[in-house]
Specification:
By secondary structure, this protein is an alpha+beta fold. The chain has 2 helices and 5 strands. Helix content is about 30%, strand content about 25%. A 5-stranded mixed sheet has the order 1-5-4-3-2. The longest helix has 15 residues. The radius of gyration is 13 Å and the shape is globular.
Length: about 100
């Protein structure tokens, strides 16, 4: 079972998502963040569940889709997973990776 580490940057993205949604519906915001977190947990048993990010030379960066969001992560050499960010599908993630 792979260990999942949330980077400070990924936590910041989650917080921004929460703030944006909570302007209209705090309960939906909390539910969305919880669902994103739960979706990422499948990586513990299936680290290659996401597709490879083809715009990077590194082949170990992957993207796991969840609704309108892309959970971007790195499979490290030691088997651990670093969640790099959670991006809305409308964002150009190349600016951030």
């Amino acid at each position: 079972m792979a260990k999942i580490n949330w980077t400070a940057e990924a936590e910041h993205w989650l917080y921004d998502i929460y703030l944006y949604i909570s302007k209209d519906n705090p309960q939906a915001a909390a539910s969305t963040i919880q669902s994103i977190f739960e979706k990422a947990q499948i990586l513990q048993n299936f680290p290659e569940a996401g597709y490879r990010y083809s715009h990077q030379l590194r082949k170990d960066i992957r993207i796991l889709l969840f609704g309108h969001y892309r959970i971007t992560y790195l499979i490290k050499d030691n088997g651990e997973i670093d969640i790099l960010g959670v991006f809305h599908g409308a964002l150009d993630i190349e600016r951030y990776l």
